[in-house]
Amino acid sequence: AVVAPAASRMKAGHDIAIDRKRSTVPPGGEMAALDPVARGRVQVLDCPSGDVAQAMAAVDELVRLSRLDPEWSWSRAAVIARDWRRLAPVRAYAETLGIPVEMANESLPSIWRLREMQQFIDVLRRDT
Hints:
By secondary structure, the chain is an all-alpha fold. It has helices at about 30-35, 50-70, 90-95, 115-125.
């Protein structure tokens, strides 16, 4: 369903091959040895329907994986959804657990709205 519409953008005539540098790495990469459930491979989570339940299942799975890897970095983890609206419960649940969240659809705030800039402007106004 995802690949078929993009067929014209694919590299036709090129077989899919494992990068030679990774040919000795087991399927599942470093997580193959650390993760007894999926062994680092993609998995489909069995969870109830609904954005909130699915968000909790996805975040809980990432938390489980994070506990297995001493080198874990949340900046290397991602949750992908069909549209941004479905990611709101992911963000809310992750933030509740203290997990840092960045959304790719967010732009940086205006420098003038930053707390530090407002404090700086207040100091300047008091000094005049």
